[in-house]
């Protein structure tokens, strides 16, 4: 099977969670091709704070001016990606870390209102990923790409959808800090139909980063990705999203 996992920056920061994640990856890598797209919003926020930059989110997306973009590139493509690559290597996993600039993996439009932020995905180039998967490498991808000829910050959920579609993955897993999508009583919604998403957002049950996540999931399912899961653990299903 070919599996794409979107790994939250929140999971990366938690030592115990990261250990569990790597253990699951080791098992999965025996019989599957693995692509991991990682975020790192938490790490970007903490470094921008250290540098005295203000963090602003609009509908779960980070406003990214020129200075913030430098932090985003440094933290996501550098610190977070390389630390993760090294964690995999320490565990004897065959892995390569890339950004979406490398091999021109993702090209987007630019969301001018938000600054250097990629909006609609225009082009996906999976050539380099396919070469690496064939050689049994796990591909670890950071969410920085090219938008209208500039380097842009792209929501990692959105990238995961676009790559899952192009790579025709058998499974798409969003690993986050919540057990799944929670209803208004904070209970996990075990099965979610994409027709319910709009309503959950309108009623304010789903907010913040869960908005771009569910919108990306909707796009993924509409474009034929079959098996989409949101969970905080690779061994449990959490929320299964269906057509
Ligand atoms: N209904 C909901 N169910 C679960 N999480 C939600 C919901 N509404 C908002 N959220 C928020 O969305 C967050 C996940 O999105 P985000 O912060 O972008 O993390 P990630 O790194 O996984 O993308 C959760 O931590 C939670 O605070
Ligand atoms: Mg997010």
Outline:
This protein is of the alpha/beta class and 243 residues long. Helix content is 39%, strand content 26%. α3 crosses α4 and α6 (156-166) packs parallel to α8.
The CATH superfamily name of the domain at 2-171 is Acetylglutamate kinase-like
Shape: globular
CATH architecture of the domain at 2-171: 3-Layer(aba) Sandwich
Number of strands: 14
Main β-sheet description:
8 strands, mixed
Q: Uncertain regions: pLDDT < 50 for 5+ in a row?
A: none
Structural class: alpha/beta
CATH top level of the domain at 2-171? Alpha Beta
Using only C-alpha atoms, the radius of gyration works out to: 17 Å
Largest sheet: spatial strand order: 5-8-2-1-11-13-14-12
Bound molecules: adenosine-5'-diphosphate, magnesium ion
CATH fold-type name of the domain at 2-171: Carbamate kinase
Give the terminus-to-terminus CA distance: 21 Å
In terms of DSSP E residues, the strand content is: 25-35%
Order of helices and strands: EHHEHEEHEEEHEEEHEEHHEE
> Please, what is the average pLDDT?
95
Helix content: 25-40%
- Continuous helix count: 8
Describe this protein's structure:
There is one protein chain. The protein is α/β, with parallel strands linked by helices and 243 residues long. It has a domain at 2-171: Carbamate kinase (3-Layer(aba) Sandwich). Helix content is 39%, strand content 26%. It has eight helices and 14 strands. The strands form three sheets. The chain has an eight-stranded mixed beta sheet, with helices on both faces. Strands 7-6-9-10 form a four-stranded mixed beta sheet. Strands 3-4 form a two-stranded antiparallel ribbon. The longest helix is centred in the N-terminal third of the chain and has 25 residues, at 66-90. The model has no long low-confidence stretch (mean pLDDT 95). The protein binds adenosine-5'-diphosphate (ADP) and magnesium ion. Magnesium ion (MG) binds next to loops.
